[in-house]
């Protein structure tokens, strides 16, 4: 073999080795980080509300490096059912958990985490679960998580300076002690999350980060509050109306300053996650999602009007107006998702499971309401739902359905006549102009879809399928 041929052979061999190595690298399963804020409003991020009083540069960075969705919806207008929709891919017409309660999801309710775990992913959850206590069918270790640290139920999660949290150790949930005087739960939770990323950097992982900020009660350590106080100790966000305390919430003399500190803490912690992913060289093989479980709260001194927390939207948590269910969604994955894009594609929590399943080449359940929105993530033409449905029965039944940006909201209390409202979201995102009386045929059409969108719940507490239409 001549020297020239030998050189060509070596070069070709090196190229083949490099190509094979590159192919293997490209075939590596992508990491998934899914961050859910608690009661964060559509207008609480500067990327969604330029006039927001609290900068959120780290969270906004996800949208700058990826895509911002402006018509994304939570699973429900309160915590537990929204998370049930996220984990199981089912709407409030079909999910087992359709309202806030201590009810666990069932053995047959397979979750996104289980699907990923079966596909070889190491799975970790740090924050608030809300879908099952220890020793129930819904306990985290039975629903697909290898690691967990945080709160099991939403009532306990109101307490940021708690004397205990829960941790998954040796495939069992254990109660762990916390110094309630000096340890802020969110610091402990984010610390465990960062350790999880560091420990699993060499294998595919799913990090589910359901943080409790900025949910009430409104409390932060003094060190976090200090930047939002004047030198004389008064709030930089006057006028302050001290919260006297109620039920599970402690008194809060400066709720505005505290809320600002909590949003800043949330943004800082998200930044720490993003920075670690980049430092470890995982950026180009990691999808990062950021969203909220429902609209902004007015609890424990919360003041969504002062903060313009719902932005251009009407309503807050517990409403089925847009402000109660439309939430931010920012997604980035360098090289896989185009940067700096904004999308008005309408999708919801129940679509996340099949979307992540397609991203990770994981089998998706067939009996769910969600569909994959990978095309939307990539800026391509996306298949749409025929309609989107929500139901919530707390202090009276509320149902909402969106079809082609026509939105029907139905109100029905026991022993009273129903009431319906109709809005065209194309030109009335704030739901100011009720068009029901002028569009009788459209109301009839959407009411018929409402009846089809729900089935009888096996959990009688949440069954409204037989409500007279």
Word description of this protein:
It is a single chain. The protein is of the alpha/beta class and 469 residues long. It has two domains: 29-385, Alkaline Phosphatase, subunit A, CATH 3.40.720; 390-462, Arylsulfatase, C-terminal domain. It is built from twelve helices and 15 strands. It has helices at 3-27, 57-64, 79-88, 112-118, 185-199, 222-225, 255-279, 304-307, 322-325, 352-359, 374-377, 440-452, and strands spanning 31-37, 67-73, 122-128, 147-151, 164-169, 172-177, 205-210, 286-292, 326-332, 341-343, 347-348, 388-393, 397-403, 406-412, 419-424. The strands form two sheets. Strands 1, 2, 3, 4, 5, 6, 7, 8, 9, 10 and 11 form an eleven-stranded mixed beta sheet that branches. β14 and β15 form a beta hairpin. The longest helix has 25 residues, at 3-27. The protein is globular, with a radius of gyration of 23 Å. Mean pLDDT is 93; it is low at 14-26.
Instruction: Write the H/E string, N to C.
Output: HEHEHHEEEEHEHHEHHEEEHHEEEEH
Share in helix: 25-40%
Number of H/I helices? 12
CATH topology of the largest domain: Alkaline Phosphatase, subunit A
The domain count comes to: 2
Name the structural class: alpha/beta
Global geometry: globular
Q: What is the mean predicted local confidence, pLDDT?
A: 93
Low-confidence stretches: 14-26
**Major sheet, described briefly?**
11 strands, mixed
CATH superfamily of the largest domain: Alkaline Phosphatase, subunit A
What is the name of the CATH architecture of the largest domain?
A: 3-Layer(aba) Sandwich
Share of β-strand residues: 15-25%
> Which value, in Å, is the CA radius of gyration?
23 Å
Give the C-level CATH assignment of the largest domain.
Answer: Alpha Beta
Termini separation: 86 Å
Counting DSSP E segments of at least 2 residues, the number of strands comes to 15
């Amino acid at each position: 073999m001549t020297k020239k041929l030998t050189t060509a052979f070596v070069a070709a061999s090196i190229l083949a080795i490099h190509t094979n190595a590159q192919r293997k690298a490209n075939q590596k399963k992508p990491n998934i980080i899914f961050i859910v804020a608690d009661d964060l409003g559509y207008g609480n991020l500067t990327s969604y509300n330029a006039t927001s009083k609290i900068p959120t540069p780290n969270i906004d960075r996800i949208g700058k490096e990826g895509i911002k969705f402006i018509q994304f919806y939570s699973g429900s207008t309160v915590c537990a059912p929204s998370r049930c929709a996220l984990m199981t891919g089912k709407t409030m017409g079909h999910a087992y958990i359709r309202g806030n309660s201590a009810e666990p999801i069932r053995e047959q309710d397979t979750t996104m985490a289980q699907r990923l775990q079966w596909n070889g992913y190491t799975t970790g959850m740090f924050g608030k679960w809300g879908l099952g206590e220890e020793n129930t069918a819904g306990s985290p270790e039975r629903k697909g998580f290898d690691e967990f640290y945080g709160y099991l139920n939403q009532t306990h999660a109101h307490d940021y300076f708690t004397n205990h949290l829960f941790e998954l150790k040796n495939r069992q949930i254990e109660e762990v002690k916390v110094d309630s005087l000096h340890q802020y739960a969110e610091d402990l939770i984010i610390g465990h999350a960062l350790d999880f990323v560091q420990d699993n950097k060499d294998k595919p992982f799913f990090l589910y980060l359901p943080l409790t900020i900025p949910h009430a009660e409104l409390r932060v350590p003094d060190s976090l509050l200090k930047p939002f106080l004047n030198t004389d100790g008064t709030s930089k966000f006057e006028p302050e109306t001290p919260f006297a305390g109620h039920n599970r919430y402690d008194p809060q003399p400066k709720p505005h300053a505290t809320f600002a500190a909590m949003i800043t803490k949330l943004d800082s912690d998200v930044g720490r996650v993003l920075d670690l992913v980049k430092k470890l060289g995982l950026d180009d093989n990691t999808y990062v999602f950021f969203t909220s479980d429902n609209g902004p709260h007015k609890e424990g001194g919360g003041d969504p009007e002062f903060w313009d927390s719902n932005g251009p939207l009407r309503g807050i948590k517990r409403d089925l107006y847009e402000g109660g269910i439309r939430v931010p969604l920012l997604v980035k994955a360098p090289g896989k998702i185009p940067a700096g894009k904004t999308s008005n594609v309408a999708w919801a929590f129940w679509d996340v499971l099949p979307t992540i399943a397609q991203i990770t080449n994981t089998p998706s359940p067939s009996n769910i309401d969600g569909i994959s929105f990978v095309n939307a993530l990539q800026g391509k033409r996306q298949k749409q739902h025929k309609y989107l449905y929500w139901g919530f029965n707390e202090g009276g039944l509320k149902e909402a359905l969106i079809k082609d940006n026509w939105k029907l909201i139905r109100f029905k209390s026991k022993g009273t006549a129903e009431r319906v409202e109709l809005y065209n979201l194309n030109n009335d995102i704030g739901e100011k102009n009720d068009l029901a009386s002028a569009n009788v045929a459209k109301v009839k059409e959407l009411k018929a879809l409402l009846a089809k969108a729900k089935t009888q719940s096996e959990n009688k507490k949440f069954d409204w399928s037989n409500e007279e239409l």
